[in-house]
Amino acid sequence: MEVKGFDMDGVIHMGKYGCGLLPGPQDVIISGRSYEEERETIAFLRKNNICNTIFFNQIEFEEKSRKSSGMHKANTIKKLKEMGIMVNIFFEDDPIQIDVIKNLCPWVNIVHLDHNLTEKENVRHLEG
Length: 128
What we know:
Layout lengths: L1 E5 L21 E7 L3 H10 L5 E5 L8 H17 L3 E7 L2 H10 L4 E4 L16
Parallel strand pairs: 1-2, 1-4, 2-3, 4-5
Helix pairs in contact: 2-3
């Protein structure tokens, strides 16, 4: 099965600016957000009628970085591939994470959303 993958911040979360990309029903969200941010992230998604499967970074909030978030995304894409789920396109805004994903998952076409509207560094997300 082929699906598209979506980053949360800078891609889906851009909807607050009226320009976010939304996943289709079978697509997956692979977020660099820590598992500690699950409650508020799920609340935001449900509030916006987004019910896709989401994979959270398993690193504690204070320990994650842009590179570790890229590693999480690449490793998740590889695990999905092993399960027969091919992420063929991934939407991402962070160039550091793009480089990690490209190096570890060269089969994935990455759509770079190049903008400065969202913070790239580790910040808390309190929307709900």
